[in-house]
Task: inverse folding
C-alpha cells in the first residue's frame, strides 16, 4: 500500500516542526511530571531525535522540515538556537532553522537576530505570549522594524504548555484563542500595516481567527470599538488576507474552508506539528490525508501548499532535495 504521498509531489516542505535540545533522564522525568500537572496526560519520557524526524518525513513524502523551539529563558533559547543550527549543519538538505526570538526583551531579540547569518537561520520563530509579553507590545517596535528591513518570514506559534483551562491541556483548545487574541491585537496595533514586508506564518491555520474574521470585519471598525490606529475595514481585510496559515492539525474542511474565506490558497502552507507529544504518527498522517483530499482545492493547489515554503524561505531552495515516495 502506498503512503499518504501517493499521487502527490513527494517534495513537500513542512514549516511547522519542532525539535528539542537533548535532556538527561532526570530532566525528562521532571518535564513529564510538569505536563501531567497541567492536565497534559503524557507521563512517558520523550526525547526528540533527528533520526525519528527523518523516518517520519520519508514515510510521508516530506523533503524538509523547518525546525523551531522556543525555550522560556534567554540562556536556554540561545543554546537551543545553536543546537538547531548544528542539526541543520548535519542534515542541510532535510532541515532548516527558524531562529527563536526572546520577545520579552527587544534588545535580546535584536542581538539574536544579529546571529542569523552566523547560525545560518532560514527564518524566525516567535511565541504569541513569551514570558507574559504579547507580540503586540509596543516595546517590540524596533524588532519589527529590523525584521521588515530583512524582508523576514516569521513563524507565529502559541504557548502549548501554559496553565490548563477548565481541566483541559492548553494544547487542545486554548492555543487557538491565544493565537487569535494576539493576531487581532497586532492588527489593531498597526504592526501588519507598518511592516508589510514581513511574511507572518500563523500556526494551526490561523487558529480561531478565520472563523471569527467575518465578525471582526463586520464589527471591528464600529465606533464603540477602541481603534487607536484608525484601521479601516478595507485595511483589515487586506492585512488578514496577507497572513500565511499553516495546516498543522487543521487539514480538514472545518479549518480550511474558513481559511479560504479569509485568504487565498496560495497563502496556505504545509505544517505537521511534528516533534511534540500532542502529535502522533497516526494524527499527523490523518491530517495529511484530509488535506490532500480536500475537495475545494485542486491537486495543483494542494501541491502548491506543500511547496509554498520555497517562496517564504528562499535560502532553502538550493539545499532541499526530492525524496522518493514511500511505500508501506
Result:
Amino acid at each position: 500500500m502506498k503512503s499518504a504521498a501517493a499521487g502527490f509531489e513527494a517534495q513537500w516542505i513542512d514549516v511547522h516542526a519542532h525539535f528539542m535540545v537533548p535532556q538527561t533522564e532526570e530532566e525528562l522525568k521532571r518535564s513529564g511530571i510538569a505536563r501531567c500537572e497541567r492536565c497534559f496526560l503524557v507521563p512517558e519520557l520523550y526525547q526528540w531525535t533527528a533520526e525519528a524526524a527523518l523516518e517520519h518525513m520519508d514515510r510521508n513524502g516530506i523533503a524538509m522540515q523547518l525546525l523551531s523551539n522556543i525555550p522560556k529563558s534567554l540562556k536556554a533559547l540561545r543554546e537551543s538556537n545553536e543546537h538547531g543550527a548544528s542539526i541543520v549543519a548535519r542534515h542541510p538538505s532535510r532541515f532548516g532553522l527558524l531562529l527563536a526570538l526572546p520577545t520579552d526583551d527587544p534588545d535580546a531579540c535584536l542581538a539574536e537576530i544579529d546571529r542569523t547569518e552566523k547560525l545560518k537561520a532560514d527564518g524566525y520563530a516567535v511565541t504569541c505570549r513569551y514570558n507574559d509579553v504579547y507580540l503586540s507590545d509596543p516595546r517590540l517596535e524596533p524588532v519589527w522594524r529590523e525584521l521588515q528591513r530583512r524582508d523576514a518570514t516569521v513563524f507565529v506559534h502559541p504557548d502549548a504548555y501554559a496553565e490548563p483551562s477548565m481541566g483541559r491541556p492548553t494544547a487542545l483548545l486554548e492555543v487557538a484563542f491565544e493565537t487569535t487574541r494576539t493576531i487581532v491585537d497586532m492588527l489593531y496595533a498597526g504592526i501588519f500595516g507598518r511592516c508589510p514586508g514581513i511574511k507572518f506564518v500563523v500556526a494551526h491555520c490561523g487558529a480561531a481567527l478565520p472563523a471569527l474574521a467575518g465578525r471582526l470585519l463586520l464589527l471591528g471598525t464600529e465606533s464603540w470599538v477602541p481603534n487607536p490606529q484608525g484601521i479601516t475595514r478595507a485595511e483589515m481585510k487586506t492585512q488578514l488576507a496577507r497572513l500565511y496559515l499553516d495546516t498543522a492539525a487543521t487539514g480538514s474542511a472545518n479549518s480550511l474552508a474558513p481559511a479560504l474565506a479569509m485568504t487565498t490558497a496560495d497563502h496556505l502552507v504545509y505544517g505537521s506539528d511534528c516533534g511534540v507529544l500532542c502529535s502522533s504518527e497516526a494524527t499527523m498522517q490523518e491530517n495529511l490525508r484530509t488535506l490532500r483530499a480536500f475537495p475545494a482545492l485542486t491537486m495543483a493547489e494542494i501541491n502548491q501548499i506543500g511547496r509554498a515554503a520555497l517562496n517564504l524561505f528562499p535560502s532553502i531552495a538550493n539545499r532541499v532535495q526530492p525524496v522518493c515516495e514511500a511505500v508501506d
Observations:
- The CA atoms of residues 73 and 102 lie 8 Å apart.
